[in-house]
Amino acid sequence: MRTSSPPATSDPDDFDALVAEVDYYEHQPSLDREAFDAYVRAESALETIVMGAAASRQKAFEFAGAHELFGRFAQLNEVQREIALRERQAGADADPEYAATLDHIIAATTGAVLLAEGLQDVNRADERRGAADFETAEVHLRSAMAAFARLAEDDDLPLHEVGALRYTLTEAMLQMVTGLSQMRSGDFVGAYGCFDKTGVVFDELLRQASDSADPQFEELRRDLSDGVRYVKAAQSFVETLREAQNGNYPDAVVAGREAVSAYQRIFDEAVSRQVSRNARALTEMELARVRGWLAWAGAELAVDRCRWDECRDLIRQARAQWNEANRVAARLVYLGVMGQRPEAGNTDLLLHSTLRRCDRERNFQVELDTLRRRIDQPNRIEIHAQGGTMSSSTFNGPVTSGSIGDGNRIENTTINAAPDLKPLAAELTELREVLSAAARTPQEQESVTAVVAAGEAAARGDETGTNRHLRAAGRWALETAQQLVLTTAAAAIRSGLG
Prior knowledge:
Blueprint: H1 15-26, H2 33-59, H3 63-89, H4 96-130, H5 134-153, H6 160-184, H7 188-210, H8 218-245, H9 249-273, H10 277-304, H11 308-334, H12 345-374, E1 386-391, E2 394-396, E3 404-411, E4 414-416, H13 422-438, H14 442-460, H15 463-471, H16 474-483, H17 487-497
Parallel strand pairs: 1-3, 2-4
Helix pairs in contact: 1-2, 2-3, 3-4, 4-5, 4-6, 5-6, 6-7, 6-8, 7-8, 8-9, 8-10, 9-10, 10-11, 10-12, 11-12, 13-14, 13-17, 14-15, 15-17, 16-17
C-alpha cells in the first residue's frame, strides 16, 4: 500500500522494501533535494538487484525472465530521467550543486536506457543462437551494436566507456555466430577464421577491462573470460572437423583431444561455479558431442592402420557419446532452452560409413593376402586348334571351346558372359538398411522401395529390372550411396538417373 509519508530508508538488499520506497518517490508531484537524493539511492540499489538478476537469468538460459528484467531496468531509468527533467525545469538553477546532480542523473539514465536496450538484444541473440537460428541471432546482435554505438559516441554519458566495450564485444560475438553458422554448413576454414578474430578481440577487451577498477566492468570481465575459453574450445573442435574433412585423421585426433580437454575445463568451471542446471547441461552436451567426434576420428584412423577391433570399439564409444548428447539435448528442447535437437541421422550415416569402410578394408586385406599366396601359381590360357582355323574372337568370362577335324573354322566370334550382379546386390542391401533407418518423407520411402526392388532384381541376375528400379531410386539414394562409399551402387544409380 502506498503511504503519504516518506518511507524509512531501505536496506540495499531488501528488494521488496526498495520497490516500495522507489514507488513512493516516483509518485510524488515534486521532490526537494533531500527527497531526490533518497530516491536516487533507493533506485540505484534496486537497479543493481534487477540487473544482477537479469544477468543471472541470461546465464541460466532463462531468456524470457532475463528479457523482462532488462526491460524493468530500462523502465526504472526512464522514469528517473523524467523526474530529473521535471525537477530541472522546475527551477533547480537556484541551487547550482543540485542542478549539476540533476544533469548528471539525466545523462546517466539516458546511457543506462541505451545499455538496457542493447543487452535485451544480446539476450534475444543468445536465445536464437541456442535454437541454431543464426540468421536471427545476427539481426539482434546488429541491433544491439546500434544501441551500444549511440552510447559510446556520446562522451557526455557516464557509461560511454562501457558502451564502447560492449559494442566491440558484441561485434566479436557477431563474428562468433557467423563462425558457428559456417561450421554447420561445413565451411571449417571460414569458421576457424571467424573464431580466430573473435578470440583476438576477447583477449584485448579482457586486458582493457582488467585495467579498470570500475565495478561496472566486473560482469564484463566474467563474460570475456568465459568467451575466451569458449572460443579456444570451438577452434580446437572446428580444427578437428577440418582435418577429418581432409582425411587427415592423425591430426584430427590430436585436435580432438585438445578440444575435449578444453570443453572439459569449461564443464568443470561450470560445476565449480554451481551454475544453473540448464547451463551445466549445455556444457555437458557439448562435451559429449566433441568426445563423440574424437572417437569417430580415432575409428577412421584405426581403419587406416588396419586395427579392425579398435575401430569397432571406437565406433561404439562415438555412438554412446552422441546418444548421451542427444539425450541431454532432448531435455533442453523440452524445457525451451534449445529450439531444436541436433540432427542424429547424419552421425548415424557417418558411423555406418566407417563400419562399412572397416569391413571393406579388412576383406580387401584378406583377398590381398590370398592373392599374394597365389602369386607364384601361374595361370595359363591354352588355345588348341586341330585341323581348323580360329581368328578374330573375343571371350568375356570363362569359355571352353574345341574344334577337332579338318575344315572346321571358328571365325569372328564374340562370346559375352552375363554380367555378375552379385556385388551390386550386396551393396544395394547395405544401402537399403541405411535408407530404411533414415527415411522420413513419402519421397524417401519411395526411394527405399525402389532400392529394395533393384536389389532383388540384381540378386536374380535381372540387369534390365535392376536398371529400371534404380532409375526410380532418386538423388537421395545416390547421395547416400556416395557418403557410404558404396561405389558399385552409386555408379549404377548414377547410370540409371542419366
